[in-house]
Amino acid sequence: MSTGELSDEEFLAAVAVAKFPGGKFDHRGHLRMAWICLRGQEFDAGLERIRVTVRGFATVLGVVEKYHETVTRAWAERIQAAIEQTPELGTFDAFLGAHPELLNPGLLAQHYRKETLESPGAKAGWVAPDLEPLPRRKQARE
Question: Model's pTM, two decimal places?
Fold first, then answer.
């Protein structure tokens, strides 16, 4: 099973109940899950849906300790800003075509020092970028 074989709804449902193979839930899969969760709703609600989905998936796989709040929210912020730049794009492939930089798993290194992201505080809670600010989104908070 690959991410491309499933509709957005089927993919999110499979991830939400951990029926999607963990070994195939790669960076692109995480991006797609977040894109689905964030589209068409307020950022805070989409972010909470991402948190619940990722934690649930990790719990079923027995790797709940891998959940990282700052990484989760920073990626959500990047994806939300990109969605707002190109709201007319209705498919994930079109979205990635317009925002190929998101395919770089190391993208957060532009915003955070390695030591910051590896800190227990960043893992447990939100830590703002310490290098370059994240792109602004319309629904910005704080």
Answer: 0.90
Cα–Cα dist 18/25, whole Å: 10
SS3 104: coil
DSSP secondary structure letters along 11-29? HHHHHHTT-S-GGG--HHH
Q: How far is CA 95 from its chain centroid? A: 14
> Sign of the CA dihedral 73, 127, 68, 109?
positive
Phi/psi zone of residue 62: left (φ > 0), alpha (ψ -120 to 50 degrees), beta? left
User: Residue 13, Cβ neighbours under 10 Å: how many?
Assistant: 13
Residue 141: predicted pLDDT: 46
Dihedral of alpha carbons 91, 93, 95, 98, sign: negative
**CA 67 to CA 64: how far, in whole Å?**
6
Asked if 36 and 11 count as a contact pair (C-beta separation under 8 A), the reply is yes
